[in-house]
Amino acid sequence: MRKLDQLIVLIALVFSKGILYGQGNANNSIVPHFKYAPSLKGKPVFLGTPFNTAGDKLYLIGHQDGSFPDLGWHVKDEMGGIWHHPIKLMDGFEASIQVGAKKYMFDKATDFVNYPFGNKHIYTVGSTPLSIERYQFVPDQLPGVQIEYAIKNSSNQTIQIQFHFEAVSNLMPVWLGERTGMVNSKDLASYDPPNNRWMVKDSLNPWYVIYGTTVKGDASQMIYSKKNKPNTTITNTTYKIEIKPNSIFYLPFTIAGSAISKEQAILHYTQLNNTAAQLLTIKKKRVLNLNNFARLTLNDHAITTSFEWLKYNSDWLTLDVDGIGRGVVAGLPDYPWWFGGDMAYTLKGLIALGRKDLVYSSIDLIHRISEKTNGNGRIVHEVSTNGAVFNPGNVNETPQFISLIWEVFCWTGDREFLLKYLPSVVKGLNWVLTENDADKNLLPDGAGMMEIHGLTSEMIDVAAYTQKAFADAAKMAWYLKQDSLARDYQQKADLLKEKINSQFWVEKNQSYADFIATKSQALHLIEDAIVRADTLGNKWAVAALKQMQSQTIADTATNNKGFVMHHNWVVNTPLETGIAEKDQAIKALNTAKRFSNGFGMYVTGIDKNEKRDLQEYSYAASVGKNDFTYTGTVMTLPTAVQIIAENNYRRPNEAFNLLKRVDKTFGYALPGSMYEVSPDYGMMTQAWNVYAYGEPIVKQFFGIQPQAYNKQLKLSPSLPTALTYGKLDNVIMGENSVSVDFKKTSNAITFTVKQTANDWDILFEQPAGKYKVWKLNGKLIQPEKIGSVARIKIGSKNAHISLSN
Predict the structure, then answer these.
(1) Coil, helix or strand for 633?
(2) Across the strands, what pairs with 102?
(3) What share of the chain is helix, strand, coil (3-state, %, to 5)?
């Protein structure tokens, strides 16, 4: 290109609507890449709550107003800031400008905007003609964050400012670091003038953080520490900037680190500092492409938006730690590590959204650590990012892992995947019964999902998930032609199903029991439950528990029995797994409605506050700044389980009602994200939330249930009345991609089904008798009746189905 042509292009790039963009510093700007991208704006009332900017090697957590207060309880006051696991790099940073004699702090943004790949804070600068926007993103596979201030001068005068940047280093180990010899020590900071950057090292470890900019600055020689954190350093740098009339000055800052060496930290810093715009282009393209898999369109736009952004949430929660592995962590800010149980729910949702890569790596990570820690098939409960295991595994997590393996195999048809994990399936089922079933009645003893002190007898969720694990393992064995093993597993699954539906069912309560226990065990738990309910001011629960206490004392029976005591959400797991008999299921579903509010299901039913639930409220505000607690909470996971349970028994309207309730939590406090505790408490971004969307929408409402190993798809839509139009594009299963859309009219419903594979069969099913007239590609067809369903077989790549009466 000739020089004159280059000049014309440059002029065209830097001028727009009378504003001059950049003054020799815009070539590597990340700001233009945020334009024309999906975004959601926050609510002013929640500017003082957390947000995250995340990558797989590093994440940043602060408040939406741009400040970095001490956050978190898991390691008190240390869960915010900038983390490059297994170490923390910084508590955060603070910026201000001085115009003339007046100083303006940038810790109270007026607006916050979230993007799938980064975020933006907007500030006003008093009555000056200046306005400032702060952008940031974290690149893929690089432990650094790029921050950029866009300083706009809307006047016709040149304005000179001093820009102050204060940074707080806090190089320290992750939770449980002491178990692997990680010991925190004093940070040492020094300025590197030729490169305009600060370099900070932990004095006893090869941990480094580097931060700086491309603009020459004046670094203060005074280095401080936070009073409550003496190992930190606080550094200050001032930059003199001249902003031309009607122009924008871009001021970038690069922060990068390493848990290995100074050389590696410099490499990370240099790469990000030199190629930030290019790295953002790559990340933006990759992240936005996530929505091209299982791409949803519904007449309900709110659900459509949440479904899309939960894909991005899962990406924010992906962590790749050198020497440990790559997997989706539980939640931010306090659970940025891996859990066996959480993963089982999360990955069942993600496999339906096209995230085979993340599903495989997450399973591999938790399996390797479990084998190293236990070696007997037991799946660990919680592992920190340094590899230290906090809990070797609750009983429910091993069966859930086994069922996850089968579910993923159904979607992928990957025989090698199944063979890889089958030995652990066999070992795991053996561990469940030989180590946790002292009375040999097939009902394992031990802790399940409920973390209530003393709940370690025969738990309903442990029983339900164990039954499903045996049933799923039997299918694995049948597929691999291990017939003897399959028969043994299926026999145990059948016996467990019968025991759960007889011994755990309590007819007078119209519910499955929380647990089976002795009289003395139950009385102890009742006493604790009464204290709990009384503390919460739930008089109805206290009265019910005292009545149960009296009845239990008077009971002369000596056998163990089921107790419906806490009304924990796990009493509905037999409905989630689909083993409840229909009459029992309908009764239990109706009973469960009592233990919900406008956002979904209570974790523990006796925590329900009837007076408070008369209106919707911020749970965070109700708790205030007291010590962190899950008591009295409504959570997304219990609601997800209930949605799935309702759908299992062909109650899609009830399921959709619950989905709309849980959907109120999406964006309630953090735009584009969904809290763990509804609507605004606990983890601001939580992995298992995808279970409430991927499972019911893809697998139940749309009815997509693949058997990739047979090259067969069962398509059994069960649509709520409220959904009149919908489309789900590019759902990946095995080597096939399937798209399904539906449209309702006053007297009919039509489905269009497309697949890319030539050798797959689709079995389209509806309840027998629901529709009288079936048409396939415009021609009348008589469906085959198989039990309670009517079915047609589709062998073509495209099909149009019309159903009416």
Answers:
(1) coil
(2) 99
(3) 35, 30, 35
Residues with Cβ within 8 Å of 481's Cβ and at least 6 positions away in sequence, in order, are none
pLDDT the model gives residue 454: 65
Alpha-carbon torsion angle 30, 35, 37, 43, nearest 10: 100
Helices 460-479 and 397-412, axial angle in degrees (round to 10): 40
Place of tokens 């959709």: 656
DSSP codes joined into one string, 273-322: HHHHHHHHHHHHHHHHHGGGSSEEEES-HHHHHHHHHHHHHHHHTEEEET
Tell the residue number behind the tokens 């609601």, with chain if given. Answer: 639
- What does 726-779 look like in DSSP terms, one character per residue? EEEEEEEETTEEEEEEEEE-SSEEEEEEEES-SS-EEEEEEETTS-SEEEETTE
What residue type is 89 in one-letter code?
A: L
Nearest Cα to Cα of residue 75 among 462, 253, 336, 319: 336
Task: Please provide the distance, in angstroms rounded to a whole number, between the alpha carbons at the two ends of the chain.
Answer: 68
Nearest to 504 by CA among 489, 514, 491: 514
Sequence-separated (6 or more) residues with CB below 8 Å from residue 488 = none
CB 333 within 8 A of CB 80: yes
Q: Give the C-alpha separation, 393 to 659, whole Å.
A: 30
d(CA 151, CA 22): 10
Tokens of 311: 């894909």
Helices (H), 537-671: 539-554, 573-576, 582-592, 619-623, 636-648, 652-663
What pLDDT sits at residue 617? 86
What DSSP line would sit under 514-551, residue for residue? SEEE-HHHHHHHHHHHHHHHHHTT-HHHHHHHHHHHHH
Helix (H, G, I), strand (E, B) or coil at 485: helix
Mark residue 624 as left, alpha or beta (left: phi above 0; alpha: psi -120 to 50; beta: remaining).
Answer: left
Query: What are 742's strand-pairing partners?
Result: 726, 751
pLDDT of residue 488: 98
| Blockwise average pLDDT, block size 10, the chain, 805 residues | 36 38 63 96 98 98 98 96 98 97 95 98 96 98 98 96 98 97 98 97 98 96 96 98 96 98 98 97 98 98 98 98 98 98 98 98 98 98 98 97 98 98 98 95 92 78 98 98 98 98 97 94 93 92 94 91 95 98 98 96 94 87 81 95 98 98 98 97 98 98 98 98 98 98 95 97 97 96 96 95 97
Separation of alpha carbons 77 and 75, rounded Å: 6
Max CA-CA distance within the chain?
Answer: 99
